[in-house]
Amino acid sequence: MRKLFIVSLLVVAGYVPASAQHTAFRYIVGEIHKVYDKPVFGNYCMGLGIDRSFNSRLTVGFDVAYDVGSALVGENGKAVNITSGSSTSSYFVKRHLLTLNYHTEYALADNDGTHAYIGTFIGLRRITQDWLDDAYYDPYNGPSPFPRTVSASKWLIPLGLRMGIRGAVDEGFLDLYAQLGYQIGGGESLYPRYPVLAKAEYTQTSSLAFSVGLAYGIGW
């Protein structure tokens, strides 16, 4: 009777024998995130991850991705022009973004084939920046009103809902997905000491977390 009770609990909890569990490694072909208010998407990430399905409906995964788009801009970084009153300054901005992401997926049909899913995600994002004023001193007008150099680093925690369309975990598959939620630590300026930078690109973090990505995986 005790064994029958335990088996019944496992069935109610959605337990499926180990033979129904599968593991897959995934390659993130491309992933973009809303990290700043401006621009909406200023990054292009690639990375690796691992998925684990526990039954015909539930899959969990963990991904690591890095912004290769910013890394390939050039040695000096991206040029950003800032205007304040009658003054204009040109900066070179080096940006870095590292993302860690844990997600769950609940298949809307059995996950032994192509299926849609909905789930949750929580992540950790590390952003760092270095700004260099390319025209700090003008011999005719004197020192620039803009700071010569500024740097910043910040951790953000995005969390919310994930949805997508993907293939079965136990074979080669594509995963097209989107994530929407709230970004803890966002909605703030990276440089509150420098109001002149307040409206510049890459200076105001977003409180809205939104991502779109495509991954390819191989499982067994």
Let me know the largest β-sheet.
8 strands, antiparallel, barrel
Q: Rounded to an integer, what's the Rg over CA atoms?
A: 23 Å
Strand order of the largest sheet: 1-2-3-5-6-9-10-11
The low-confidence parts are 1-19
**What fraction, in percent, of the residue positions are helical?**
under 10%
Kindly report how far apart the N and C termini lie. Answer: 36 Å
Shape: elongated
Q: Count the E strands.
A: 11
Structural class assignment: mainly beta
Which band does the percent of strand residues land in?
over 45%
Q: What's the overall average pLDDT, rounded? A: 87
Number of alpha- plus pi-helical segments: 2
Could you give the order of the helices and strands?
HEEEHEEEEEEEE
Kindly describe this structure:
By secondary structure, the chain is mainly beta. The chain is 7% helix and 56% strand. The strands form two sheets. It has an eight-stranded antiparallel β-barrel. A two-stranded antiparallel sheet has the order 7-8. The longest helix is centred in the first third of the chain and has 11 residues. The N terminus is likely disordered.
In short:
With 220 residues, the chain is mainly β. 7% of the residues lie in helices and 56% in strands.
Topology summary:
Layout lengths: L1 H11 L9 E12 L11 E9 L4 E10 H4 L6 E7 L2 E21 L7 E19 L3 E2 L3 E2 L5 E18 L6 E12 L23 E12 L1
Antiparallel strand pairs: 1-2, 1-11, 2-3, 3-5, 4-5, 5-6, 6-9, 7-8, 9-10, 10-11
